[in-house]
Amino acid sequence: MGSMAELMLPVIDFSNPRLKPGTAEWTAVRDEVKQALETYGCFEARFEKVPVDLQESMLGSVQELFDLPLQTKLRNVSRKPYHGYVGQYPMVPLYESMGIDDADVYEKVDGLTTILWPEGHPNFSKNIQSFSEKLSELDKMIRRMILESLGVEKYLDEHMNSTNYLLRVMRYAGPQTTDTKLGLNSHTDKNIVTILCQNEVDGLEVQTKDGEWFSAQPSPNSFVMIGDSLYAWVNGRLHSPHHRVMMSGNKARYSVGLFSIPKGGYMIKAPDELVDEERPLLFKPFDHVEFLGFYYTEAGQRAESALKTYCGV
């Protein structure tokens, strides 16, 4: 691959009303999902339940959120690493983000809204919850397809019941220069599945298995990738890609990611069906919250693969 612009990710359509488990349409899309996640660890998803007007309303709410004074944004605190307000870091001065736990539940969202806007802001709560609820439908479809494609669908209920949703909203300030500046360091996600929507400002780059970087261009479609927790659960059968954000120009980049997150106390362990002589166990069972705590230590940040360092066999 000679340049980042040459690689086009698969675009997978989830909008067919006949897309139901057991149908030929479902099987065809399921095969596309498996191939994309084996090859790239990511793909674009076309999903009409998240129309452009809902995305635009959501991104408008995100911009309104980040326009709040810093002292107001700092009210969003969490005991979990990087689940509250994150920003003002010298290493990534262009980046700030905010996490909203259980964002598909209106009461949870409105609780945070009241902290940020004591006078109330029901439109903000509605946009966040509606967007998250729709994206969670896509997340559940994708995860079901993954388990079916690997022949371990008997674990579906346990798998779904072991996760919550975190919505993370992100802003990358324009660096006010044509030179490219770091927006966010190269990393793999640590969760199960990430579904990302972004405004028209590009900057997201993804690394292939061969170590080449390509640009994930802004699109009305959702960008889907898997994280380390799912990579470990499927015993390395799918790819968890490194990605980063590189910024140039004057315009801010806004993005919104729905993360399916393993619940604290749930041990992530590859099913016996996915472990054999050809594919020996890669990782010891681990708790996602404890792994996340390690990742943000000096040793975790220094490791080439925090997952392998933490629980590799």
TrEMBL record:
Keywords: Dioxygenase, Iron, Metal-binding, Oxidoreductase. Gene3D superfamilies: B-lactam Antibiotic, Isopenicillin N Synthase, Chain. The keyword Oxidoreductase applies. GO terms for molecular function: dioxygenase activity; metal ion binding. InterPro entries: DIOX_N, IPNS-like_FE2OG_OXY, IPNS-like_sf, Iron_ascorbate_oxido_reductase, Oxoglu/Fe-dep_dioxygenase_dom. It holds the Pfam family 2OG-FeII_Oxy. PROSITE patterns: FE2OG_OXY. Residues 162-262 form the Fe2OG dioxygenase domain. PANTHER family: 2-OXOGLUTARATE (2OG) AND FE(II)-DEPENDENT OXYGENASE SUPERFAMILY PROTEIN-RELATED (PTHR47990). Probable 2-oxoglutarate-dependent dioxygenase that may be involved in glucosinolates biosynthesis. May play a role in the production of aliphatic glucosinolates. Belongs to the iron/ascorbate-dependent oxidoreductase family. This is Fe2OG dioxygenase domain-containing protein. It comes from Eucalyptus globulus (Tasmanian blue gum). The lineage of its organism: Eukaryota, Viridiplantae, Streptophyta, Embryophyta, Tracheophyta.
